[in-house]
Amino acid sequence: MQITFLQGILLSIFGAIAGLDSYTEALYIFRPIISCAVTGLILGDPVTGLLAGGIAELTFAGLTNAGGTQPPNPAVCGIMTVVIAHTTKVAPATAVGLSLPFAMLMQYIILMYYSLFSGFMPSMDKAAQNADTGKFNRFIYFSMFVMAATFFVIIFLSAYAAQGPMAALVKAMPKWLIHGFELAGGALPAVGFAMLLKVLLRINYVPYLLLGFVIASFINYSNVLPAAVIGVVFAMIDFFDNKQHQKLQAQIDEVKENGGSEDGI
Amino acid sequence: MESNSNKKYTKVSKSDITKLGLRSSLFQLGFNYERMQAPGWTWAQIPVWKKIFGDDKEAMSEAMVDNMNFINTSPPLVPILLGLLTSMEEKRVDRKTISGLKNALFAPLAGIGDAIYWFTIMPIVGGICASFASKGNPLGPIIFFLVYLGIFLCRIPFAHLGYDMGTKAIDVIQKNSTIISKSASIMGLTVIGALISSYVTLSLKVKIGSVSLQKDFLDKVFPNLLPLGFTFFLYWLLKKKEVSPIVLIVVVFTLCIACSFFGIM
Q: Residues A142, A82: one domain?
């Protein structure tokens, strides 16, 4: 299916807004579950948007901005996944894999801007010294404009201008390669979870990880809510234990202090 | 003087704090490698400083120069810190105390924020909404959007909370940051365990004689053992071999395409 010029422009406008959101982390409409759904609506293919959003969101579960890092851009991944699935008729899982090069391209562009904006810091220091608030406004709006414009151009080029060559490329791919991409779509969430584990996992938390895994493997339920609720239960138990412990520690310290002074007398 | 220093809203009004909370949603604009969020952080406070310092250019310049120092904190929680520091600026607490407080708090706040927002709320909400979306249910993206809209709106009460708590906030944040991150980690890890079992899909096609390795052996031993093992393999690469996430993604693609080519999966 072809993407019309109007759809291309609408996608680019949405790309600019969602992209800016991925920079500011204000509304989280840059997350694939939202960006896929909106792209599906723009392309008149809402079901593909929903299905792709479900897969792409999980692929990005661990690829977070935590600690000021930049993952492959989720907004671009979301938009391109639906664009690829819609135009080339491949399965959404395959499309997630095919969209990653675009998301990585955007990631590198943003990292380049991070370096570039560092170059403005000396002049911002000077503006701060002179209490030049106008200059701060101009710099902030400038960075906003640059980011939005970049997303607009990248989405327009990849979603509208390059759709012909892209469809040709997908058509030319042998079956095993397409199936390989589909497999990768199913395996990629593991990268995200591995990254979450790298940050979160301590040896004393391993039981909780296994607990969640076992619950979801054996309870046949359509989502992870039961595991989440049991997680809340254990979190609360631990929280109250720690609070109690803190209180006791404070009491012990108090007794020790009093004891010490009495001994002194 | 003493009683005067405890008064609230002497220079800024209630609506100024509300605006501060809303303005905080754009504070990552101008993000760069050298100072990270410093330009946006400074920019967000300019309107309240204008109210507080009035025509005193020197005080304005001092505040701006000081706030242009490096800062990297949690975007959804930053309004608390902004509100807190505004209440201190308003009382004209000396510059060293204010910047000392900022530097003492932004890192623990970033830790709590990442633990709560990226590693607890995101996997739970994302996981549940993705499971709706992958069945073609539009509630997936809708619930996701509403939850994050709620998180966005929390910026307003958070800014007021910070402002009202004043110096009391420091104690609360520092005392509870480890307990809160610990409980959040427990919840997050339980859900991640469930997500690994539900969303990493790997299944072998290999047969030994008439025995299917996946259906007749692995699924009987323990369902989803392969996804768990694969996730831990990636975790091991990340943690012990310090492989970068981008390399991991390439590894996953290569493995999947190779497995598809040789008919293993």
A: yes
Report the domain count for chain A.
2
Is A10 in the same domain as A132? yes
Mean pLDDT of B101-124: 84
Token reading at B226: 């392969």
Domain interval for residue A192: 5-200
Q: Are A150 and A44 contained in the same domain? A: yes
pLDDT at A54 over 90: yes
Q: Looking at the structure, do residues A31 and A99 belong to the same domain, yes or no?
A: yes
Query: Of A200, A219, A238, which residue is a domain's last?
Result: A200
Say if residue A92 is in the same domain as residue A31. Answer: yes
Q: Residue A231: its chain B contacts at CB < 8 A?
A: 124, 186-191
A151 and A231: one domain?
no
Q: Who among A114, A128, A189 is closest to B65 (CB)?
A: A128
Quote the percentage of chain A above a pLDDT of 90. 57
Q: What's the mean pLDDT in B29-53?
A: 93
Q: Does B68 score more than 80 pLDDT?
A: yes
pLDDT tens digits, residue range A226-252? 888 899 899 999 999 998 998 898 899
Whether A49 and A73 share a structural domain? yes
CA proximity to B30, closest of A64, A118, A111:
A118
Residue B11 contacts residue B86 (beta carbons within 8 Å)? no
Give the long-range contacts of residues A205-211, CB within 8 A, separation 24 or more: A205/B185, A205/B186, A205/B189, A208/A234, A208/B186, A208/B189, A208/B190, A208/B193, A209/B189, A209/B190, A209/B192, A209/B193, A210/B193, A211/B190, A211/B193
Nearest to A193 among B26, B42, B231 (CB): B231
Q: Do residues A24 and A68 lie in contact, with contact meaning Cβ atoms separated by under 8 Å?
A: no
Mean pLDDT of A132-150: 96
A19 and A93 both lie in a single domain:
yes
Residues of B in contact with A26 (CB under 8 A): 25-26, 75, 152
Answer whether B30 sits within 8 Å of A139, measured CB to CB.
yes
